Amino acid sequence: MLKDLKALGKESLIYGLSTVCARLLNFILLPFYTHYLMPAEYGVVASVFSYIAVLNIVYHYGMDQAYMRHYEQRARAFPAAFACLAATTLLFTAVLCAFAPFWANASGLGAEYTRLVYFSAVILLLDTAAIIPFAGLRMSHRPLRFAGVRTASIIINVALNVVFLKYLGWGIESVFLANIIASAAAVALLAPEFREACAAIDLGVMKNLLAFALPLLPAGLGAMVVQVLDRPIMLHLSDAASVGVYQANYRLGIFMMLAVSMFDQAWRPFFIERARRSDAGPVFARVLTYFTAGGLWLWLALAFYTGDLAKLRFAGTYLIHPDYWSGLGIVPLVLAAYLFNGVYVNFLAPVIIAKKTGVILGVTLAGAAVSVAGNFLLIPEFGMYGAAWALFVSYLVMTVLIYLRGRRFYAVPYEFGRLAGFCAAAAVCALPVYFAPFTALPSLAFKAFCLAAFPALLWFSGLLLPEEKNAAGRLFGFR
After folding, report:
1. b/e per residue 205-222 (b: at least 16 CB within 10 A)
2. 3-state DSSP: the chain helix, strand, coil percent, rounded to 5?
3. Tens-place pLDDT, residues 305-351
4. Cα dihedral 122→126→157→47 (10° resolution)
5. Which among 107, 128, 307, 339 is least surrounded, fewest beta carbons within 10 Å?
6. CA 385, 389, 395, 398 torsion: positive or negative?
């Protein structure tokens, strides 16, 4: 088991470092945008990219997951998957461009932003072109190649945003132009991976790919609705400035999202390859245990210090412009929602191994329904805090439902007793910071004490097994 967990940890680290580097470079744009875009302008940018995120699911319709699941037939699966995506991408892009004014008005942006629809269509086309090559790199265990291409694309995107906005003053359209150039660069860098697309198309393999992928489309849409539809809904129920403030503080949850993303990149190939082994269940259970312990500690650290980080001054300038500080209170909720998303990703393993993708559809649609209903009910009353609570409850519902359905297909002996103990320890550490009357304005040192108390509680409460303590001792050099 330890060997398998080390393999997962190694690939998670490599994928994670690439994802962290790429997203941190992208994170640089957050304080940059808050100083060079008004909240209303940033709200428009956030809303458009939310629509792009949803449409990405439509453009991809689960074909990357289908290709990964049929990777053993990759010589025939690659050209079949690529041909499917090429045909549908051209169709979807034509529909977007042909009716661009209609989409601009229907989205709540207004006719003055019609050009952003054209920019979005190009971004979607380029991102779809790269999706199968990226999936191939993951399944062939080439994380460094994967990391290099993604990081190069993000560097180009960040650099062009700075040039276009700060030095050329081109406005919000330049944000999308920079993204187009960066996506085109990624496609160009992946050119060697496209050679397999020239092989003959096997219609039987294509049929199998579509049979696996299409049920993932509504499921993917449901998952993406949970993540991003709050911003378009807020745009309709409130105003662009509120969306901008919400988006800026939502983005401060990026570090938990990074942790989940880096885990997910390695987790899916890991459990697919080990599904038939006799010890797979206990290994998968232990993965969730360690993921939860690490995730809770990270949640405490980020929830305690993100507000302080946002208010740091560099050369007389705040990291995040004060116009956006009113939304800092949503950050702990967003972080907790992403942590539940990570648990949900763990619980996906039994369903995907059993090829019961229809279950994912039902679960994500339920989560999407909770999200939409929650946003419409809570945003008018509580504003951006209502949107954050809707996000949290949606991920909680999805996590519970996917576990209940998945256990019917593939038994995994999850260590729920230990997981409950970890959650209790995290609560004990968080309560003094947020609710104790003598810590109305907790100091950095007090937060550090509460953060350090979490691993201490795990160590002395008996929640860690003896072999885990020994391994930790060897890792940190005190045994």
Report:
1. bbebbbebbbbbbbbbbb
2. 85, 0, 15
3. 888 888 888 767 787 888 888 888 899 999 999 999 999 999 998 88
4. 50
5. 307
6. negative
